[in-house]
Amino acid sequence: MLNIKRYDLSEDKSLQAWSAADEYLLQAFKDLDNKPDHLGIYNDRFGFLACHLHGITPTVIITNKSQEKTIDSNLKANDLTSVNFANPISSLDTKMDIALVKIPKSLGLFQLFLEHISQNSTDDVTVICAFMTRYFTPNLLQIAEEYFEVVEQSRAQKKARLLILSKKKKVVKRDIITSLSYKDQEYRQYLGVFSAEHIDYATQFFLDHLDIKKTDQCILDLASGNGVIGNEIFKRLPDAEIHLMDDSYLAVSSAELNIQGTNIHHHFNNELSIFDDDTFDLIVTNPPFHFEYEINIQVPLELFRGCHRCLKKGGSLQIVANKHLNYKIHLERFFTTVQVVAKAKKFIVYKCVK
Ligand SMILES: C[S@@+](CC[C@H](N)C(=O)[O-])C[C@H]1O[C@@H](n2cnc3c(N)ncnc32)[C@H](O)[C@@H]1O
Q1: Could you state, in order of their start, the residue ranges of all structural domains in the chain?
Q2: Which terminus of the chain, N or C, has less C-beta within 10 A?
Q3: CB 230 within 8 A of CB 219
Q4: Which segments in the chain show pLDDT lower than 70?
């Protein structure tokens, strides 16, 4: 029995490191008559599949730094050798003949995965996808049918279901970058990155209420997504040193498309431990609290703790959040001054001074 843990070591027992959909994928793989030459695994958040299948040296396609770190630590905890990691926008050296996909919440990301599989697989590839039945939408079938002639659904097992895709279509490469405009500027982003249709309304509200000073010379856009907040600040302070950090590889790659310069630094990471104490004059963030279908505020609270450490004395952390999350109580544990700068029906902007 393998020991698989979540990276956030949540005490909330309803948050688990794998689901019946992961178990169904594993069983479907074990039931295959022919074992693959090259297996690809997509959206294995905490490494349940990577750990169970590490013996056949799969390529694990990761989207998040936290995912890569957790899979590594779960492999180590179980005395297993490492696996090959890849990302979903770079070509693989060897073509896959089987891919396992835990279907993500974002349909854009599902499409990006199928596009990657389509470009990096043998003609006779089989793709086994799994989802919890309560999250089914007909759009899944529609996307799958863009890439495969045969799309079969399995019977349900412990409220999970499989989609088995075969007979790959000869599809021309699709565009995996979309664009959205904000204040006369085009922002580009990969499929699956936060808020694909328009700049998030909370972010827009935040940008209208940012308190930026000329003396803010070292700035962090934390959980930067496509980089819109960092870029809007860059326009106002073109000489400032601006860092942008996100846990998502696709977000960081999108931000790299939107904001560049010698004073701009992109970081693919999920922890502020990469920065020294007393580094920043200003940290701005629309922090994450949705992770696929889960809500988990332990992650933003840990980031806020790190923000306090990384801010210079007198520096500020400015946050936009959904009002109901009630971050003020938590922020007051780290910061002596927590001011409400603006409120709208759903959103609130805080300024915390160190
Ligand atoms: C609410 S979105 C905000 C994105 C962008 N700043 C905007 O306003 O459009 C939150 C972002 O946090 C990222 N994220 C999740 N966990 C993270 C972590 N531990 N560290 C950094 N970024 C994280 C997600 O990938 C996502 O891009």
Answers
A1: 20-168, 177-353
A2: N
A3: yes
A4: 8-14
